[in-house]
Structure formats: structure tokens, C-alpha cells
Amino acid sequence: NATASQSSRVTFVLIVRIPAQGIEDFRAYEDAVLPLLPEFNGRLERRLRNPDGTIEMHIVSFESDADFQSYRNDPRRTAQAWLLERSSAKLELLPVVNVP
């Protein structure tokens, strides 16, 4: 049942505020880490960006919280953290649920 599997997934909204001078580094970070999602049963459901690129929102989901934690702790992801730091992006990660 697709609905049941959707509702059991853990879902997050990521809101990122990026200084104009950090956009290139932030996008390089994303290019490196987003392709890892499927390995951890993760999915980028939606990716939105404002016209000047200084705000980005992602809706991501994982099969389980354990999958999410494994993604967060993956050494290939943490090895790219310097790009995120250099971008000076401010991140807000919010756990959310689907509303029927």
C-alpha cells in the first residue's frame, strides 16, 4: 500500500538562508551530498529556490529515522561539511508529517 509506506516515512523540511557570496559553495555542497540520498532510502521530494538563490527549501524523506541518521553520519557527507561552513548558510531542519 503506497499510502501506508508514505505515511511511515520520516519527512523533513530544510530551510536554508544563504548569503549571496556563499551560493556557489552551498550548491557545490548540495551537488556532493544529494546524490547520496537513495543509498540511505532517502528521497528529495521537492527542492525550491527563491529567484536570487539566497533561500532554498528542501522536502526530504527517509524510510526510517535510522536511515536519516546514517545519511547524516556518512563520511562522504561529513567530508563536504567545509563547503557548507564556507557558504555561511543558516539551516533550519523541521520534522513534519503529512496532513490528510
Q: Summarize the amount of helix as a percent range.
A: 25-40%
User: How many strands, which pairing sense, and closed or not: the largest β-sheet?
Assistant: 4 strands, antiparallel
Number of strands: 4
Gross morphology: globular
Task: Describe the overall structure.
This protein has helices at 2-8, 23-33, 65-73, 75-78, 81-87, and strands spanning 10-17, 42-49, 55-62, 90-96. The chain has a four-stranded antiparallel beta sheet. It starts with a helix and ends with a strand. Helix 2 packs antiparallel against helix 5 (81-87). The longest helix is centred in the first third of the chain and has 11 residues, at 23-33. A hairpin with a 5-residue loop joins strand 2 and strand 3. By secondary structure, it is α+β, with helices and mostly antiparallel strands. 38% of the residues lie in helices and 31% in strands. The protein is globular, with a radius of gyration of 14 Å.
